[in-house]
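INPUT
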Amino acid sequence: VAHISTGVEYALHCLLYLAEPASAAPAGARDLAQLQGIPAEYVAKVFTRLEKARLVIASEGLRGGFRLARPAAAISVLDVIDAIDGEKPLFDCREIRGSCALVTRTAWKPRGTCAIHAVMLEAEARMREALAAHSLADLAARVAAKLPAGFGDEVADWLATRAAARAANRRTPATKVKS
Amino acid sequence: VAHISTGVEYALHCLLYLAEPASAAPAGARDLAQLQGIPAEYVAKVFTRLEKARLVIASEGLRGGFRLARPAAAISVLDVIDAIDGEKPLFDCREIRGSCALVTRTAWKPRGTCAIHAVMLEAEARMREALAAHSLADLAARVAAKLPAGFGDEVADWLATRAAARAANRRTPATKVKS
DNA sequence: GCGATGTTACTCGGATACTAACTGTCCGAGTAAGCCAGG
DNA sequence: CCTGGCTTACTCGGACAGTTAGTATCCGAGTAACATCGC
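OUTPUT
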């Protein structure tokens, strides 16, 4: 319902985990989602859009995953929002001036941008400035300052444990021939 | 689809017509809507909300209508938006931090506002500042500067013509008694 | 001539359908890794 | 011991429903004004 959708929130949280320097190896979307208790398939859908916007690079196949396409300091919050929500305008002017009965009768035509639209565009510009002023690295540092010491290592351990469990689940590898 | 709804646009256009000093008499919602070619019933619904927010005062009965409750310089664009869209937040944080698997296992609890939420709140504050900086009088003056001279008089004439037509439509007033 | 009164129809106000977008879910194509057989 | 090939199942990618909010519309209650009727 809000202008900035939930997908942006999911993407930002996942990207903050990816911004950790320890995450040199690509992280899978499923792991990141289950780590935070959010729908895994939806996260994959969101990361698809991030990949189209050239913000992350996808590695396919086994042990595949996503990694940042640029340094975390070079990705702003606004980039993420535009990549997912599609640069949706804050306000779509319907040019009501042109439908005014007095205007249509006379030969006068409105020129320039609508005054109301101009105010909205200015507000949108201020909002975008504030969103572009913060980068992923900035957010990651601010979050890390609040977390307990050694939290990044715990995250790495959790991911490693999950990978080990998946490897162990690989039962009786290939003792059977075809058909 | 946009965050600032179409109802806000309708309301602002109508309020600009009401902000004209010539509109000392209350103007009906139907006249204002048909003057601009927008749905009349929807305008009435929107003005209902404006009246609940104490921005306009409704005069009921015949020749009724709306007039501004305060001087046009004391009503900001933000007031109109909040009155109609209900101060909807730009972003609703779902507190994903609390759902993190590592956080739920340990006894650590996140405190303060989420860093992502803080960025969004700052952007929203900048946007609201820009919207609150412009008043109805300011917009009306800027619009009047672009319009041809004597446009306000034409609007008054148009409204008077409509009123006269309605009066003429009142045929054979009451020559018939009951039943 | 003046006042009370009934009619009028026009006003606002809330309750009711329709449309579109976001959220969430599912299934299919592609591919890097790992095991096994053969040399 | 080394190399080639094959199975594996896990990955991303796009296509498919459910639900909520906004948009537009309709009908009912209330009321100020007007013309009429009585005094």
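end of record. DSSP finds eight helices and two strands in chain B.
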